[in-house]
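Good morning,

Attaching, inline, the backbone tokens for the sequence recovery test we're adding to the shared suite. The designed sequence is right after.
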């Protein structure tokens, strides 16, 4: 009976270790962490996409205010798109060659 308990505990620990390895230390996990850090650093992450502008103080916005808000939205959209492109290229490079120079530098730079 005692041997079965020890074996069950060891099997359970092995399963937990395998799950932790897959989520934290596998190549795909390292690539995704670097991608998320890249998106956060360059403002293309979920926080950047959901950033709200402050509400208008007056009841009626002037044409200049509306144009200013439209330009801010345009810049946010372009920046988010560029971030997605750059960070996506890093992620693809890592998936293609995990041990390559580009991937190693990206992972080291976004820790």
């Amino acid at each position: 009976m005692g041997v079965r308990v020890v074996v069950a505990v060891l099997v359970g620990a092995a399963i937990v270790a395998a799950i932790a390895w897959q989520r934290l230390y596998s190549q795909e996990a390292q690539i995704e962490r670097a991608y998320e850090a890249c998106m956060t650093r360059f403002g293309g992450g979920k926080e950047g996409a959901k950033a709200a502008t402050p509400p208008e103080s007056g009841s009626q916005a002037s044409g200049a205010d509306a144009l200013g808000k439209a330009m801010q939205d345009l810049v946010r959209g372009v920046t988010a798109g560029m971030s997605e492109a750059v960070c996506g290229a890093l992620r693809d490079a890592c998936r293609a060659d995990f041990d390559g120079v580009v991937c190693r530098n990206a992972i080291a730079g976004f820790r």
